[in-house]
């Protein structure tokens, strides 16, 4: 298993990303993610990183934990994560937004055809 280096976009001190807002229409709004802790050893068991998330009705905290077996586990203090997402094995919108940052979109393979020579 390879570890994500902590000198990536996730370790930037602050950044904004679009997230569906708290209103009934779930209007996309910019949410601020601010790194509040970054472990100097990314492979150490325990808390790897934490972020404060602002932009909705309340501010929340996200934590990335490295387990003994090396797996990573995400935690968020929002109600969706506490009462639904973690119990169902899924992520809340705050964690999904953080995970989506910087990920390249898959190449469009529909227009690419392999030609036999």
Task: Please tell me about this protein's structure.
The chain is an alpha+beta fold. The chain has one domain (10-100). Helices cover 15% and strands 33% of the residues. The protein is built from 2 helices and 5 strands. A 5-stranded antiparallel β-sheet has the order 1-2-3-4-5. 19% of the residues are buried.
Query: Approximately how much helix is present in the residues?
Result: 10-25%
Instruction: Tell me, briefly, the overall form.
Output: globular
Beta content comes to 25-35%
Q: Can you list the strand order of the major beta sheet? A: 1-2-3-4-5
Mean pLDDT: 78
| Main pleated-sheet profile | 5 strands, antiparallel
Q: What structural category arises from helix and sheet content? A: alpha+beta
- Quantity of strands, as a count: 5
Separation, N- and C-terminal Cα atoms: 38 Å
Number of domains: 1
Topology:
Blueprint: E1 14-20, E2 28-38, E3 46-54, E4 60-66, E5 72-76, H1 79-88, H2 93-100
Antiparallel strand pairs: 1-2, 2-3, 3-4, 4-5
Short description:
The protein has 117 residues and is α+β, with helices and mostly antiparallel strands. The protein has one domain. The chain contains 2 helices and 5 strands; from the N terminus they run βββββαα.
Keywords:
2 helices; alpha+beta; 117 residues; disordered N terminus; 5-stranded antiparallel sheet; globular
């Amino acid at each position: 298993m390879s570890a994500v280096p902590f000198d990536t976009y996730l370790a930037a001190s602050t950044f904004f990303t679009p997230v569906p807002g708290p209103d009934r229409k779930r209007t996309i709004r910019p949410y601020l993610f601010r790194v509040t802790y970054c472990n100097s050893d990314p492979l150490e068991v325990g808390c790897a990183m934490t972020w404060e998330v602002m932009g909705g009705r309340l501010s929340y905290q996200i934590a990335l934990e490295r387990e003994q077996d090396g797996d990573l586990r995400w935690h968020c203090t929002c109600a969706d994560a506490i009462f639904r997402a973690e119990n169902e094995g899924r992520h809340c919108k705050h964690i999904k937004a953080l995970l989506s940052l910087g990920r390249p979109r898959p190449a469009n393979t529909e227009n690419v055809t392999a030609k036999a020579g």
